[in-house]
Design a protein that fits this description.
The complex is a heterodimer.
Chain A (H helix, E strand, L loop, with lengths): L1 H25 L2 E12 L3 E6 L12 E4 L8 E6 L5 E6 L2 E6 L5 E11 L8 E2 L3 E6 L5 E11 L8 E2 L4 E5 L1
Antiparallel strand pairs in A: 2-4, 3-10, 4-10, 5-9, 5-12, 6-7, 6-11, 7-8, 7-10
Chain B lengths: L1 H23 L15 E6 L1 E8 L4 E4 L5 E8 L3 E8 L4 E2 L11 E8 L6 H4 L4 E8 L6 E8 L25 E13 L6 E13 L1
Antiparallel strand pairs in B: 1-4, 3-10, 4-10, 5-9, 5-11, 6-11, 7-8, 7-10
Classes of the chains: A mainly beta, B mainly beta.
């Protein structure tokens, strides 16, 4: 008898809840929203070699470092998302400042790039390049050269920076 | 004697349970007692796409003008209950570590002012709230309730006409809009494709 009464109690207390749940289940409408994002590696620029000028000859009026074939060219590797396009731009002219004086020289940069690590097949890059991309390993190779007129330069050491910017498109 | 006491206790329990059954019937619940009321969630914009972001570039937001949008076509004078649930964390394939779980703030808003399209509806929304999902808090729910067509500040009107033979329920339908948007944070997260599902359930009150 006790169990019968407990069963009656259970039925009456739970049946309204079950009924409501049943009714609600009949009228639930659902939709699914897809959320997505792609995280790509941040770009790193690794300087492998700095540009050097070698020994100057007496009476030499200009220094020219050819980025495509000179061993004095600077060498950098950009590392990023494989097969992803990026934008590369650089400042074409920079002033080199005499370290122990006030004299300056204007250096005109030329750079070349290649998706393979092969300087001789690299191509000269414009000031603002948008159609280049990282290779399968996420690398792009850059050689830095340029020219500077030293006809009226004062003897001494000169130094300056090279600014290159790389961003994903 | 002991048996008699048991019967008395049992009788009281059953009596109380009857009272609770009677209490349930005091509410007029249009949604519960008519299977004729339907609601159609239409995916106007089924994706919340944050696009591409580089590692450690910080926060990227998608505003309400770039939100995922669900259009709810329902009976204008009925309330709907909405549950917006993120069922799993925002992860990349094959990894559930902290650096593979993209911190995500999900925001939600609705517009129930009778607009015909989502563009005009975006200009007048009610914010439901927001929830933060990350490696430590991997799921969450936002819930709200509103009438398909807002009464705005007007007092409640007369009770709606009950359904009867020949009554055109379709004529009573209006559109409300649900907007899902938010922000992600790419700091300290490894590269890869990240995805998650937001489940939205809708039912009449």
């Amino acid at each position: 008898m006790r169990y019968i009464l407990l069963a009656v109690f259970f039925f009456y207390t739970t049946s309204p809840l079950l009924l409501a749940q049943n009714q609600r289940d009949k009228h639930v409408f659902s939709a699914s929203i897809d959320v997505r994002a792609t995280i790509i590696p941040s770009i790193e620029l690794i300087t492998v070699n700095s540009m050097t000028f070698g020994n100057l000859q007496p009476g030499q009026k200009e220094i020219y470092v050819n980025p495509i074939n000179s061993l004095n060219a600077g060498f950098m590797i950009a590392v990023g998302m494989p097969e992803t396009e990026f934008r590369l731009l650089y400042l074409p002219e920079r002033e080199l400042t005499q370290t122990n004086g006030n004299n300056t020289l204007t250096f005109k940069y030329e750079i070349s790039g290649n998706s393979e690590e092969n300087q001789s097949t690299s191509e000269l890059l414009e000031l603002d390049n948008r159609n280049i991309k990282f290779n399968e390993e996420g690398r792009y190779y850059v050689w830095i050269g340029g020219r500077v007129n030293i006809e009226n330069a004062q003897p001494g050491n000169y130094e300056g920076d090279f600014t290159i910017e790389i961003d994903y498109i | 004697m002991i048996l008699t006491k048991l019967y008395i206790k049992s009788f009281l329990i059953v009596f109380v349970s009857f009272l609770s059954v009677n209490g349930q019937t005091q509410e007029i619940d249009f949604g519960q007692y008519s299977s004729r009321y339907t609601i159609s969630p239409i995916l106007v914009q089924p994706n919340l796409d944050f696009g591409t972001i580089a590692q450690n570039q910080g926060v990227k937001e998608r505003g309400i003008d770039e939100a995922a949008i669900i259009k709810l076509e329902g009976i204008q004078y009925l309330d709907v209950l909405i549950d917006i649930e993120l069922l799993s964390p925002f992860e990349t394939d094959g990894c559930s570590d902290e650096e593979c779980t993209l911190p995500f703030i999900l925001k939600a808003a609705y517009s129930n002012f009778g607009d015909d399209n989502e563009i005009s509806a975006q200009n007048k929304v009610v914010h439901i709230g927001e929830m933060s999902i990350d490696h430590s808090q991997q799921t969450g729910v936002l819930s709200t309730q509103f009438q398909i067509l807002s009464r705005t500040s007007a007092p409640p009107g007369p009770p709606p006409t009950p359904y009867h033979e020949g009554y055109d329920l379709e004529a009573q339908k209006k559109s409300a809009y649900l907007f899902l948007y938010g922000a992600i944070n790419a700091n300290g997260i490894i590269s890869g494709g990240y995805s998650a599902d937001i489940q939205v359930t809708v039912y009449y009150d």
